[in-house]
Write a structure and sequence with these properties.
Number of strands: 4
CATH architecture: Up-down Bundle
Organism: Robiginitalea marina
Protein name: DinB family protein
Pfam family, one: DinB_2
Shape: globular
InterPro entries: DinB-like, DinB/YfiT-like
Number of domains: 1
Largest sheet: 2 strands, antiparallel
Helix content: 40-55%
Strand content: 5-15%
Amino acid sequence: MDKKIKDVLWNQFGAGIDMLINVISNCPENYLSTNRRFYYIAFHSTIFLDYYLTIPPGDFSPLLSFTQKGPDDRPLEAIDDIIPDKIYSKEEIVDYLKQSREKCRQVVYALTEESLNERFKEGNDPNDMDYPVLEILLYNLRHTQHHTAQLNMMIRQDFNEHVPWSFRAGDLKGINENQTR
């Protein structure tokens, strides 16, 4: 796969992850514990960023544990059936995101014509995901940006604070771009 395409894909995907890291890093210290909706969206985004980067998904081993719960057992603020086993700190979530950011960079730069034909396949049920690698990467980028926008909106509404936009991976202060391409 062409390096220029990998650079573009990484610059945009990395920027999306940087923005997620930035909004969580810059939320007030107690906001994760006082705004449960913000917390559940942040946790969900973190878990699924890593999950959608795991090919095959059966190899997924999250760094922060959770339990899948039925509708009657979920907190009202939860956005899906993935419920954290404890309240993780902002630092734990950001550290996980930074590790997933590096995983994403490695996945993108390891792409080949052959690996693009691999599939992200969850199972054989009708609602299970079965996407080519490039499509799951783009899906993951959209998913990350969707929830980042929700978190940004909450910060804007609750604190009237603007969280900066990232144009490309590594252009936000405080988010390291230590890796070389």
